[in-house]
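Pipeline run #58 for the internal structure catalog. This entry was flagged by the ingest filter as a single-chain record with no existing model, so it goes straight to prediction. Upstream metadata was stripped on purpose; only the residue string is passed forward. Reviewer on rotation: M.T. Logging verbosity set to normal.
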Amino acid sequence: MADDEPRGNLLFGPFELSSKERALWRDGVALPLGSRALDILIYLAERPGKVIAKQELIDHVWPDVTVEEGSIRVHVAAIRKALGDGQFGNRYIANIKGRGYSFVGALASLGGATESRTARSWRQGRLPVRPIMMIGRETFVTELGDRLRNDRFVTLLGPGGIGKTTIALAVGRVVAQAIGGEIYFVDLESLTDPHHVAAAVATSLGFSLKSKDPGPELVDLIRSRKLLIILDSCEHVIEAVASLAEQLYQQTEQIHLLTTSRELLKVEGEHCCRVPPLDFPPDDSEQTANAILRYPAVQLFVRRVATRAGRIVLTDKEAPFVADICRKLDGIPLAIELAAGQVASLGLENTVDLLVSRLELLRLSHRTAVARHRTLKATLDWSYDLLSDAERIVFRRLAPFVGRFTLDGARSVAGEPGAGVEDIFDAVAGLVEKSLIATRIDVVQAQYRLPNTTRAYALAKLEEHDEVDMVFGRHAEYLAGHLETLREALSSLPGAERAAAYSDQLSNVRAALEWSFGPCGDAATATRLAAAATQVFLELSLLIECQAWAERAMAGLGNPHQYSRRALEISATIPLALMHTEGNDQRVRTAFANALDIAIEQGDLAHELRVLSGLFMYSHWTMDIRGASEIATRSKKLALGTGSHDDMALAEAMLAASEHLSGNHLATQLHCEAGLRHLASRPRSRTEPYLFHYTSFLLVGMARSLLYRGLLDQSLDYARRARAEAKRSGNPATLCRSLALVLPVFLAMADLSQSDQYIGELSELSVAHSLMPYRAIATGLKGRWLLLQDNRIEAIQLLKRALEELHVQRHEMLNMDFTCDLAAALMDLGEHEQALTLTVNAIEQQQRAGKLLHMSALFRMKGLILASRSAEDRFDAEESLLSAIDWAKRQFATLFELTAATDLAGLLLKQDRLPEAHEYLSASLDRVPVGISFPARNRAVQMLGQLRSAAEDVG
């Protein structure tokens, strides 16, 4: 800024700097700053963006004194402390290393205005002289100011403690300056007689009213003036305020009105602006210090803790506790400030545990705070006292709802016997209008929610009236019936939409289950609710929780009910959860067998098929070929009896998987194609009622059978479709299963980038949802991926770990793949004996168990190890490779035939047996469709070229 330019006051952030008055204000409050520090700040701010050398600053501030550079640093530090420089991303003064300092904040100038700050204060009228700190409200204040300028009459609506008064003061200053008028703040909190509202406004404006009808008299007195009047805390005198505000709006042209209230005035000209809570970190967001400090709720919390406990540096360890506090308090500024005041004495963890359940903790120590804001309970008492009797009854009886609820839910839980829907609707509408209930209307059916702190207050009222057991019992019964209805209603929706709908119910379901199984709960309701809740937990892949509630429910069933319909619903979920979280031990088989007995006893074919689908998955993962085949055949008979396309598709999926385990890849493909035809013949939108997602399973079967048959282009297409279908299901276990089984396709294509992405996805999902077998599979697949990049040391570590974990979990489907990979890595490192022992043991084990799927791969691996070990083993190596080719031919496993034939050709080439090598390899290549390019085929073609070159050299 040139020295000859007029220097008006400078505005930056919440600060105003005057070079004329040599003063710095924040939100209208003067800040104490030494004269030298002020000189430095003014000099830098008048030259924004310019780097000022330290010596230049010294010459300006101390023109006749010799000082050291350290003096500059001390005063700059004082300036930064006063400005809060560096907190929450705010930067004003930058230290340019080796050069000096620069003012880097965004500046606005009041220009050459000569009006003193004292004069401006007079024009502001009577505003509270108290510090105002706002975080995260900048955009809201700007938009509200624009609306108030244009519409003249705006009501700030929101619950107690949301920050209405603070925002109103900030907006008032901005708008009063913009319209060139005076601003007056009228605090109505202490007013008890509604007849005194007009007189209170007049007193604030400096008038004394004499008429018995004060409203019109006040209008006449100020009709020609340009004013902004802020009416604060209107809810307890709402009728009187509404009448006066309407007169002021209708009968004047230059008066702007800004009111704050917990409910609308509902008069002509009023425009509502609901104050939102501060943004806080969602449950599923990153919980590091840097991540959560981006949210205004956290910024406010940290700043308030710092004012009580001194300087605070938020650590990553503390970050999740702070995020949890802000979530539990729903981003309500007053609640956050009150909670922050407790941290210095209680610590973060204790504050988290106690703050919502004990509202008395939320006390404000500021003696200057208004009475209704000194505790959160006082704030809620203020609102509760304004409710009608009917609204108070409904309010406290909504306490059992954790999260969202509907009007039907409110009627079922909070209504009196015989009360109509209209009575409940009126009460709920009143609570919404008074900002005690939050509403969401961007959905088909309006949903409501009690903020956490408000719910804690409602619970206390429920206890005062001795209604806890009665109302919580209603809540549990309502949830049970609602979930039973919801299951059928959601059956036609896509998986992601079902999951979203069930997510909305989860908190309520948990609360209802806790009460139902508690000391005051009802056993029959608990069982009914547990049965209905299984679908919620399964859809959301909360398998450990599902198992826990199901086991409690089954333990509570007496002999007369052990074969009941609800026992049937519950019993099938226990082994399913165990299988995915702990592995395939004998408990899984026993639990499935018990569930099957109940289904048969009930004569319920649909549930029998459902249980059989789970038992089949157990047999599939444990490589129990006979068991899988028997279950598939039995399921096919049942499906033929029902005539359902869904049941037939399920049965074909089971038969396909059974054939795949036996190594019959052509039969696998035929069954998958039959199953997909059944899927095309039934309504596509219905949910799959079984314990595994057979649509994605059929696509997986196609991908794997085509992979073995060497049709990799088609296999790749089905692999992508299988993943997409599994993702669409919205079920993490389904997606993990599909990824685990189709990833070998991408690895066979040596698509390292896509493989790495999908392995990462599988690993993250399995950890997030405690799907332990899939985490082990992800580890093994990562080992194979590393092996493709010749990173054998790390590959061996991962493959060994995966095999150990899968053995413990009896999850054998991919064990032999990883065994071959581990043997290959050991062989490459010269550990021939270890590799050979591993492979020979695997062959013997598979042959004894009749598990033939991996025989070709195992014999090929044995041949490679023998060929690599010594020239003396070449005969045995050749025999093993020939066995691998023979197994592959019998199974129509063209890919495995090609890889073994290529290895055999290489072995024969070393012995100069060119005609035999050429015969084996060319015969295998002829069985691979032309036009398909993949690593195994490319390697075979390259070997064939070497054979031809060698033959030409011999010729």
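catalog note: DSSP finds 43 helices and 15 strands in the chain.
catalog note: The mean pLDDT is 83.
status: ready for reviewer M.T.
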